[in-house]
Amino acid sequence: MRTPLLVANWKMNGDLALLTAMQQGLSAQAYPNVELALCPPFVFLPQAQTLFSSTAIAYGAQDVSDKTAGAYTGQISAQMLSQLACTYVIIGHSERRMYCAETDALIAAKCAQAQAARLIPILCVGENAQQKQQGETQDIVLSQVRAVLDSLPTESIEQLVIAYEPIWAIGTGHAASPIEANAVHELIRSCVAGYDVTLAQNLRILYGGSVNAENIATFLLQAHIDGALIGGAALKPEVFAQMANIANQLSK
Ligand code: PEP
């Protein structure tokens, strides 16, 4: 049984007041059947630690350095995130692949750094609109997954989450169809099974791309969709709480 995971990716949005509002909004109710995680910008993580470390809500970062320490101005190491008691770190988000020219090799190195510091990478994979049109979804997604898995010890899959995020669905209001997304998730799971069958069965694969309170149930009802990575809709405490509630009810 895979516990559903909902992750809020704030991107470069939000402030300290929003973090407090999230804490208040989410503490009004318990969500025993789901796991929730907030990934605000780095600078708000100390406040996240204060607000959430004694709660069931996890938190994490949106990126991490591929280096351990040293002269890398502006970078944040996995060890630093670990000191703030982060659980997760989003790695390889398409916005970083696009705007920061992150390669599969760099993303694999970041995942290794994260796991060495006992952080759980949320590895993002997904095709763009043109690749989808050209029928390349499967090849793109599998090559992104394999680039990381080939470079990690097989047992590290236990400490990994994968998020399938078709780029054309991110922030556009045009989510993938749940059935199509589920087919890609199934493909990812069968690829991971090539490394280890049991770890593949236990692996949580999240869907991301225009998930909101109206459509989240349709994704969570799919056999291979184990949660969601949520951008825009997770910036409103009442909407994130509503989605948590829906996921909690479905997973009873
Ligand atoms: C994301 O940023 O990972 C994302 C899925 O964004 P949105 O939910 O806004 O599409």
Overview of this structure, please?
The protein is α/β, with parallel strands linked by helices and 252 residues long. The chain has a single domain (5-86, 103-250), classed as Alpha-Beta Barrel (TIM Barrel), CATH 3.20.20.70. 41% of the residues lie in helices and 15% in strands. It has helices spanning 16-27, 45-52, 78-83, 94-99, 104-116, 129-133, 137-149, 178-193, 197-202, 216-220, 237-250; strands spanning 5-9, 35-39, 58-61, 88-91, 120-125, 161-164, 204-208, 227-230. The chain has an 8-stranded parallel beta barrel, surrounded by 5 helices. Strand 7 (204-208), helix 10 and strand 8 form a beta-alpha-beta unit. Helix 1 (16-27) runs parallel beside helix 2 (45-52), helix 1 (16-27) runs parallel beside helix 11 (237-250) and helix 7 runs parallel beside helix 8 (178-193). The longest helix is centred in the C-terminal third of the chain and has 16 residues, at 178-193. Bound molecules: phosphoenolpyruvate (PEP). Residues 9, 11, 165, 170-171, 208-211, 229-233 line the site of phosphoenolpyruvate (PEP).
Question: Which short descriptors sum up this protein?
Answer:
about 250 residues, alpha/beta, TIM Barrel, eight-stranded parallel beta barrel, 8 strands, about 40% helix, globular, binds phosphoenolpyruvate
Briefly say what this structure is.
With 252 residues, the protein is α/β, with parallel strands linked by helices. It has helices at residues 16-27, 45-52, 78-83, 94-99, 104-116, 129-133, 137-149, 178-193, 197-202, 216-220, 237-250, and strands spanning 5-9, 35-39, 58-61, 88-91, 120-125, 161-164, 204-208, 227-230. It is 41% helix and 15% strand.
